[in-house]
Design goal:
The structure holds 3 protein chains of 3 kinds.
Chain A: H1 2-20, H2 24-46, H3 69-100
Helix pairs in contact in A: 1-2, 2-3
Chain B: H1 7-24, H2 31-57, E1 59-63, E2 74-78, H3 79-102, H4 108-127, H5 131-149, H6 155-186, H7 191-197, H8 203-220, H9 230-236, H10 239-263, H11 268-290, H12 295-315, H13 319-350, H14 361-364, H15 366-380, H16 386-398, H17 404-433, H18 447-465, H19 468-482, H20 485-492
Antiparallel strand pairs in B: 1-2
Helix pairs in contact in B: 1-2, 1-4, 2-3, 2-4, 3-4, 3-10, 3-13, 3-18, 4-5, 4-10, 5-6, 5-10, 6-8, 6-9, 8-10, 9-10, 9-12, 10-12, 10-13, 11-12, 11-17, 12-13, 13-15, 13-16, 13-18, 13-19, 15-17, 15-18
Chain C: H1 4-25, H2 27-48, E1 56-61, E2 64-68, H3 72-95, H4 102-124, H5 128-146, H6 151-182, H7 187-196, H8 199-217, H9 225-232, H10 237-260, H11 262-266, E3 272-273, E4 276-277, H12 278-299, H13 304-325, H14 328-359, H15 375-389, H16 395-409, H17 413-438, H18 454-472, H19 475-487, E5 499-500, E6 509-510, H20 511-531, E7 544-545, E8 548-549, H21 564-570, H22 578-597, H23 605-624
Antiparallel strand pairs in C: 1-2, 3-4, 5-6, 7-8
Helix pairs in contact in C: 1-2, 1-4, 2-3, 2-4, 3-4, 3-10, 3-14, 3-18, 3-19, 4-5, 4-10, 5-6, 5-10, 6-7, 6-8, 6-9, 8-10, 9-10, 9-13, 10-13, 10-14, 12-13, 12-17, 13-14, 13-16, 13-17, 14-15, 14-16, 14-18, 14-19, 15-17, 15-18, 16-18
Classes of the chains: A mainly alpha, B mainly alpha, C mainly alpha.
Chain lengths: 113, 496, 630
């Protein structure tokens, strides 16, 4: 339960940062917080207390005590995606700073209506 | 012998070419230009080879890694996803030809790699059979699109790219959370399997996930008010990219909503909720388009309006409505991507995106302007062009239920069509009859770019004057979707 | 399957494309093709003339068949469409020579033929979808004919196309409503379903379809596009628009009232006034208002083509007034007037076009004294205005007489008075036309004006002859009209070649007698004039004004603000401008759209992100509340 709560809290903090913060970098931090929250959520879904790794290495492991492997695979994929997104975003921020000379999102609104 | 009519190849080939293109620059600079043409040429051929199978069985399933679904990742192609995949491959092919003559900015090979990735992602999103793959395809498409929108690296492009990225990432996160909630509830990711198992879920369990998935896909699918990135991103991107973004990418996201809603969350009241979104999208898109000064921004808002229109047709939740939606998708994909290609060529000649500067261009660029007019007429739904048949179908389908809500929505749709006519005719009028402003030498677009335009234009004209096969095909696709043949056939053909 | 109708329909479209391609070879190839194909269409039309085809299937859509059909009424309209189109194309050959841009001319002829084809399609349509399809094609092809460059024509064309689209979509809703009830759009099926449906439904259908037809026919509250479009269009196009295109609205009204709704009208689903169903009565009033107001507006014009355009509104008012009476005589009069108006209004527009071709202006106060320079055009114009004013020997008289007679029989006195007022007003504005252009003082600029080339004269000759023939032998047209109306369930009218015999339901009319009486009196008067003439021929400048000798530089006769004093009398009417009301609403909608709707896209990323979060929250809340937010 605590995992769910924690991950939703992370997502909420991330969203808060995205909406409220003016600084581009902080927005990105917010994005990443939310993404981490999601990843945590995924892992915690498959988690079983005192579970074991889902590998048939030793004989005698009870399959029902195994942690669900699929969420972990999903998380790995999601992490990769988040990382690449973040890299691209940081590149954009650098370019934005060059063009606008500011990191304030409120001032970066040449495209509107 | 390897069976070439395998849906997996539709994704595998472009993805392979993405890597080839990325590495090709080590050997030759110019080869990267032509690789996407081969990739999507092959794709079109394969997609056409799948047609007989799909027509025979109604559904083709391809699995990976030797497992059986639901464990394995599977690609499911039915009539609906097949025709979308064909359109995507075709647009990819045509726009690749256009790109060769259009893109003159470094780093070219990265552009081509991202472009191929974008179309590959779109096709992936269309033919995937499980939700997590949908998420991955969604993200692949998005990341490629973020990069391409910012490709010019000027002020507007970077701003648009960044905004798109932030909104797209939020959308991706929501989509992932939604998918995971479904997984937690049912223990599977396969769409058909979820549909089977979600019957015993409570309303809240099911639809909380739906709310998140819908929001996530709605951001990419340009539903109001989640579409604010679109009018920025389309004008900022190179025109060939806008063509793909507008022609098939938003459509693919909407398709995903269609598919998921219809297969898993088929619940009558949800359609009212969706119709609300559809009409808002339509109204805001068309009204905003009317006031634009930037030609590409105008087309971008018009895309929002069109999306609203075919999403509305979908929410009618009847065979006729779905058929209208599919026809409108074909119409929109062909016309709008053609318009973006033409406008790209015109902007190269005029040197500006301001509508006022386009006065008199139509008399100089005759072929382009002719097809521009055809595309716009088709979008407005004037006969004898294809848009007329689709709009006819949508209106007829809407008025099949004669309640006051439907009549009101039809009135809204037609009013918005008038608005659409108003801004398209304003542009056409300036283009054909206006006095040219500057003495700039305006020539017809280069032959290669024109080829791409003419191919799309001729296809559009062909389906306009001979719509019967499309009408029959979409009718079949619509009744498949309505009758849940997707689930039934998947179960029958061993999709599970 | 009989291919003749498909052939008739396809000829102009194929011809248009070939003409366009021909233009790439040489301009004469193009011109010859254009004339040839319109001639071919006319030939095919006359070949099949007055034969009845029932339900030729030419395609299918959504499982329902698309059907072409004919009845005598369609042949009447086809006659108008094909012959006027041919004349217009012949006239264009010389008139449009000044246009240097090749592609503009190539597409001009293509569009002319397309418009012709679309109108043939409308008339031949046997189901509502075919009708609507060609209706839309007609709208956008004619738009390209109206706009030909210049700010004014662009504004006019824009207004035209937007109003056309609005009208067309109103029709569209009606058609879709019918389809949802009948699941078929073939006329007999539609008529059957409508005869069984509720009055509210029928009234909605009539209103929605009526809006579409009223826009095209330019009946009063929806006429605002016409004066601009007809006057700004190139001179050969104006006759096509005014003579033929607006008649499609009249044809549409005829079809809905008497083809689709006849059973409803007969069953008296609505209360009736003066034995007319109330809806038709309203239509009659709208038409009568069109007649009077448009006549007044025409009187006040300074621009020859604008004057004729307003006159078109008032004349189409007669057509609609006749059609809406519901009696055999009135409907026949309306249809006949549609034919007559097509002939004489085309003649007038061509004559004015000829003047514009030679002088380059259509401003009435700049013209004058052209009678010696352009004698033939003068004759054509005089014949046209006599017909328009409804003076006996020519065709306008007979049809107007029929409409008056029908109103008289129904004892609708107010409408009759309004129709009379319109007719009298017509004298005023047509006199203005002939006076300001041809009589009076010749402007020095126009010393070297010649009459127009022969290719432009031929169409006018043809129309002059047609005006006279239909005027003296109204029976020629009545043949078709009466035969056709019998198919729509009207009682036949007694008629003969020269008019209407004694003893029929109305008074007798024998036009040939009137014509001969007039002719004789005219000859007598002329003889008197010759014999007892005390006048002496003087030069125009053998005159004085304010004590000064007049010279050619001075304009000594009245030509600007000709009816100014009359204008002061009718001024209060023009304080209310329908166009201003429309513009007000359009502006209001624009402001609303601009300031309240477009500005949702603020350009601020935070706002956009909060939209997303709001949507998620609302959606999630809706779900958690069990989906019961409505």
């Amino acid at each position: 339960m605590i995992y769910y709560l924690g991950s939703f809290l992370l997502i909420a903090i991330g969203l808060y940062a995205i909406i409220i913060k003016k600084n581009l970098i902080k927005i990105l931090i917010g994005l990443n917080l939310a993404a981490s929250g999601v990843n945590l959520l995924i892992v915690s879904i498959g988690y079983i207390k005192n579970g074991t790794a889902p590998i048939f290495s030793k004989i005698g492991i009870n399959p029902s005590a195994m942690v669900d492997p699929i969420p972990q695979a999903l998380t790995l994929t999601a992490i990769v995606i988040d990382a690449s997104e973040l890299a691209l975003a940081v590149a954009f921020v650098v370019l934005l700073y060059r063009h606008y000379g500011t990191l304030d999102i409120k001032k970066i609104r040449s495209l509107k209506w | 012998m390897v069976n070439l009519a395998n849906p997996i190849l539709l994704i595998a080939i472009p993805l392979l070419f993405v890597f080839l293109i990325a590495f090709s620059s080590a050997f030759s600079k110019s080869i990267a230009k032509y690789l996407p043409i081969f990739a999507f040429g092959l794709n079109v051929v394969i997609a056409i080879m799948i047609i007989p199978d799909v027509l025979k069985n109604g559904l083709v399933i391809a699995t990976t890694a030797g497992f059986k679904p639901p464990i394995a990742i599977d690609m499911v192609v039915d009539r609906l996803s097949l025709f979308l995949a064909i359109i995507a491959s075709l647009l990819g092919f045509v726009v690749s030809i256009y790109n060769v003559f259009y893109i003159d900015e470094e780093p070219e090979e990265k552009f081509y790699a991202l472009f191929t990735l974008l179309v590959a992602g779109v096709i992936w999103m269309i033919i995937t059979g499980d939700l997590f793959n949908l998420f991955v395809a969604f993200e692949v498409t998005s990341i490629a699109a973020f990069g391409l929108v910012g490709f010019h690296r000027d002020k507007g492009a970077v701003e648009a790219g960044f905004k798109y990225l932030v909104m797209g990432s939020i959308g991706g996160s929501f989509l992932l959370v939604g998918v995971i909630m479904l997984y937690a509830a049912t223990g599977t990711l396969n769409i058909v399997d979820i549909a089977q198992k979600s019957a015993e879920l409570t309303f809240q369990q099911k639809f909380l996930a739906y709310a998140l998935i819908f929001t996530g896909l709605g951001i990419e699918g340009a539903l109001f008010p989640l579409n604010a990135w679109l009018p920025d991103a389309h004008p900022a991107a190179p025109s060939s990219v806008s063509s793909i973004l507008s022609g098939i990418m938003t459509t693919a996201a909407i398709y995903a909503i269609f598919r998921i809603t219809n297969t898993i969350f088929d619940y009558n009241q949800i359609y009212f909720f969706l119709m609300f979104f559809a009409l808002l999208t339509l109204i805001f898109g068309e009204v905003a388009a009317f006031f634009q000064k930037d030609i590409k921004r105008m087309l971008a808002y018009s895309t929002i309006g069109q999306t609203g229109l075919f999403f509305f047709a979908f929410t009618l939740h009847s065979t006729n409505g779905l058929q209208g939606a599919f026809m409108q998708i074909i119409n929109h994909s062909l016309s709008k991507s053609m318009l973006f290609l033409i406008v790209g060529g015109m902007i190269m000649q005029v040197g500006s995106r301001n509508i006022d500067d386009f006065a008199g261009v139509g008399r100089k660029m005759k072929v382009s302007a002719f097809f521009l007019a055809v595309g716009m007429f088709s979008l407005m739904g004037l006969p004898p062009f294809f848009g007329f048949w689709s709009k006819l179908k949508i209106i007829f389908a809407a008025l099949q239920q004669t309640n006051i809500l439907m009549v009101a929505s039809v009135v809204i749709i037609l009013l918005m069509s008038v608005v659409e006519g108003a801004y398209f005719f304003k542009l056409l009028q300036a283009m054909f009859f206006g006095k040219p402003k500057q003495d700039r030498e305006i020539k017809e677009a280069s032959l290669g770019m024109l080829t791409a335009v003419v191919v799309l234009g001729l296809i559009l004209l062909f389906v306009s004057f001979y719509p019967t096969p499309i009408i029959d095909f979409t009718h079949q696709a619509a009744s498949d979707l309505m009758n849940k043949n997707y689930i039934n056939l998947a179960l029958k053909l061993g999709g599970l | 399957m009989n291919m003749s109708l498909e052939l008739l329909l396809a000829t102009p479209f194929i011809g248009g494309l070939l003409t366009y391609i021909g233009g790439k070879v040489h301009r004469w190839v193009r011109n010859i093709f254009a004339v040839l194909f319109s001639l071919l269409t006319l030939g095919e039309m006359s070949l099949f003339y007055n034969t009845t085809f029932k339900g030729d299937v030419w395609g299918s859509l959504f499982g329902s068949k698309l059907i072409l059909q004919t009845n005598p009424i369609t042949w009447l309209f086809l006659l108008i469409v094909t012959s006027i189109s041919l004349l217009v194309i012949v006239f264009s050959v010389d008139d449009m020579k000044h246009e240097e841009d090749h592609i503009v001319l190539d597409s001009y002829y293509m569009q002319l033929l397309f418009v012709e084809g679309a109108m043939i399609g409308i008339v031949l349509a046997g189901d509502l979808i075919t009708f609507f399809m060609f209706w839309e094609i007609m709208s956008w092809t004619s738009y390209f004919l109206i706009v030909h460059g210049g700010k004014k024509s662009m504004d006019a064309g824009y207004k035209y196309i937007i109003m056309s689209i609005i009208g067309a979509y109103a029709m569209f809703v009606a058609i879709a409503m019918i389809y949802s009830k009948a699941h078929s759009l073939v006329y007999p099926d539609v008529a059957l379903v409508l005869s069984q449906s509720s009055p509210t439904f029928t009234i909605w259908i009539i209103i929605l379809l009526g809006v579409g037809f009223f826009v095209k026919a330019a009946v009063m509250p929806l006429h605002t596009w016409l004066p601009d479009a007809h006057s700004e269009a190139p001179s050969p196009v104006s006759p096509l628009l005014s003579g033929v295109l607006i008649k499609m609205g009249a044809y549409g009204l005829f079809i809905i009232f008497y083809g689709l709704m006849s059973a409803n009208l007969a069953k008296n689903i609505m209360p009736s006034i003066f034995s007319t169903p109330v809806l038709l009565y309203i239509v009659q009033w709208l038409a009568a208002l069109s007649i009077v107001l448009a006549t007044f507006l025409a009187i006040m014009q300074e621009d020859a083509k604008r004057l004729l355009a307003y006159s078109s509104i008032s004349q189409i008012g007669y057509v609609v007034l006749g059609l809406a009476t519901g009696t055999s005589l009135g409907v026949a009069g309306g249809l006949f007037h549609a034919l007559n108006h097509a002939i004489f209004k085309s003649l007038l527009f061509l004559a004015v076009g000829a003047v514009i071709y030679r002088t380059g202006t259509r401003n009435l106060s700049d013209l004058g004294g052209l009678v010696k320079k352009m004698p033939f055009t003068f004759v054509a114009l005089v014949v046209g205005i006599i017909a328009l004013a409804g003076v006996p020997p020519l065709n306008g008289f007979v049809s107007k007489w029929m409409i008056y007679e029908a109103l008289l029989q129904k004892k609708e006195v107010f409408l009759l008075i309004m129709a009379f007022v319109g007719s009298t007003g017509a004298f005023l504005y047509v006199y203005r036309l002939v006076h300001s252009i041809f009589l009076g003082q010749l402007s020095q600029k126009h010393e070297n004006v010649k009459d127009v080339p022969i290719l432009m004269q031929i169409p006018m000759w043809v129309l002059v002859i047609a005006t006279v023939i239909y005027g003296i032998f109204p029976g020629l047209a009545m043949d078709v009209i009466v035969k056709g109306m019998k198919m729509f369930g009207f009682a036949p009218i007694a008629y003969n070649l020269y008019g209407f015999p004694q003893g029929s339901t109305m008074g007798a009319l024998k036009v040939i007698n009137i014509a001969s009486v007039l002719m004789i009196s005219f000859v007598v008067a002329w003889i008197f004039f010759l014999l007892f003439s005390k006048s002496r021929k003087v030069s125009q400048y053998d005159n004085y004004a304010a004590g000064q000798v007049v010279t050619p530089e001075l304009k000594y006769n009245y030509s600007f603000g000709f009816y100014m004093s009359f204008g002061r009398v009718i001024k209060p009417i023009f304080k209310i401008s329908i166009e201003r009301i429309y513009n007000y609403w359009v502006d209001a909608a624009k402001i609303f759209g601009d300031y309240y709707m477009r500005r949702v896209y603020t350009g601020n990323l935070e706002t956009y992100n909060s939209y997303i979060v709001i949507v998620v929250t609302i959606a999630a809340a809706a779900v958690l509340l069990g989906g019961k937010i409505w």
